[in-house]
Specification:
Layout: H1 19-42, H2 53-78, H3 86-93, E1 98-104, E2 110-116, H4 121-129, E3 140-143
Antiparallel strand pairs: 1-2, 2-3
Length: 144
């Protein structure tokens, strides 16, 4: 049987599931795929061909560990009413930058001040929820 374009067919072997359980499992799987796609591309965890089995196992372990960290963060946020997808959270988190301002002092030495930009309100709410500093890395000063 051919499936028309744009139609998904699910095949399961769980005969006792009702429609809500099936839908919950489907949405969980699509979310999991989106998070793994993100982890593989943005964190460089895309398939790497290892020559030794223990290296492949290590690679898989890091990927699953990263996924668990993502899900832990999302569960904590969800408990406080923040129900964003991982894609949306990445967008919010990516708005804040660390910048370095360079100044020449009167004595000719150069002062470098490195600090995070002020977070947007949505990011600030995430920091508050997770009990994190809104200025990650603090302020670093260096004189040459």
């Amino acid at each position: 049987m051919l499936t028309p374009p744009g139609v998904y067919c699910l095949r399961i072997y769980e005969l006792n599931w009702d429609a809500p359980k099936l839908w919950q499992t489907y949405t969980m799987l699509t979310d999991l795929e989106a998070v793994f796609r993100s982890l593989k591309s943005e964190l460089g965890l895309r398939p790497i061909y290892h020559r030794k089995e223990d290296r492949a196992e290590g690679h898989l372990f890091i990927t699953v560990l990263a996924y668990q960290a993502v899900q832990t963060i999302r569960r904590q946020l969800k408990a406080h009413g923040i129900n964003e997808s991982w894609t949306s959270l990445r967008g919010i988190l990516s708005d804040q930058q660390r910048v370095t301002a360079t100044f020449t002092q009167r004595d000719g030495r150069t002062l470098h001040v490195r600090k995070a930009t002020v977070p947007e309100p949505a990011l600030h709410k995430i920091y508050e929820t997770l009990r994190l500093s809104p200025t990650p890395g603090g302020v670093k000063k260096m004189i040459n």
